[in-house]
């Protein structure tokens, strides 16, 4: 375990008050048991216009130019688990800040479901093991609280030297990654105009491209979660394809 990273990570963590600590922990099962997205039956509606995030110049807007492969590579002498833990902590923290910015527009009324495409809304498994639609703010609050609690849990994300990462660490971080992807997917699908209004699209695109590149590099991300099914595609699946074609991401 890298001394530097252990120190820097625990310092960063110490500085940030848990943003969602006041939110009650959901009593529903952890998202690790969540079902795959359930497709909403397609209705015969007029063709959907191309989303703004897939349109020029927004699709190209990024702070980091070039291929993201180089910034996700494991630095020399850094433990891979520590590298993954650190990056997940950063993705979570940054995404939480972006969601904080759009949160007043993501309400029980505006976002009745956890939508991520014209025919896709993710479902949550409730205590009765039933797959249910939750308003997006509720779903996101459950997910972010769950991740915050994991990050604060020394047994899951150890920060002290001498504490090893648990055997379950790879599968835990895959679940975390899948849920973070859903939050990105909802913001792109439902709130990209607010991101544009704040002129934050270069930041948000860079964060998401970094997240995708990192997830592919360390096999934390399944492409079927990025693309969705043909009946209910994930909106950001097309974004991934565009960026791959532009040479920003690897295939
Ligand atoms: Zn929303």
TrEMBL record:
<keyword id="KW-0862">Zinc</keyword>
<dbReference type="InterPro" id="IPR036703">
    <property type="entry name" value="MOB_kinase_act_sf"/>
</dbReference>
<feature type="binding site">
    <location>
        <position position="106"/>
    </location>
    <ligand>
        <name>Zn(2+)</name>
    </ligand>
</feature>
<feature type="binding site">
    <location>
        <position position="191"/>
    </location>
    <ligand>
        <name>Zn(2+)</name>
    </ligand>
</feature>
<feature type="binding site">
    <location>
        <position position="111"/>
    </location>
    <ligand>
        <name>Zn(2+)</name>
    </ligand>
</feature>
<dbReference type="InterPro" id="IPR005301">
    <property type="entry name" value="MOB_kinase_act_fam"/>
</dbReference>
<feature type="binding site">
    <location>
        <position position="186"/>
    </location>
    <ligand>
        <name>Zn(2+)</name>
    </ligand>
</feature>
<feature type="region of interest" description="Disordered">
    <location>
        <begin position="1"/>
        <end position="46"/>
    </location>
</feature>
<feature type="compositionally biased region" description="Polar residues">
    <location>
        <begin position="1"/>
        <end position="13"/>
    </location>
</feature>
<protein>
    <recommendedName>
        <fullName>Maintenance of ploidy protein mob2</fullName>
    </recommendedName>
</protein>
<keyword id="KW-0479">Metal-binding</keyword>
<feature type="compositionally biased region" description="Pro residues">
    <location>
        <begin position="26"/>
        <end position="46"/>
    </location>
</feature>
<dbReference type="Pfam" id="PF03637">
    <property type="entry name" value="Mob1_phocein"/>
</dbReference>
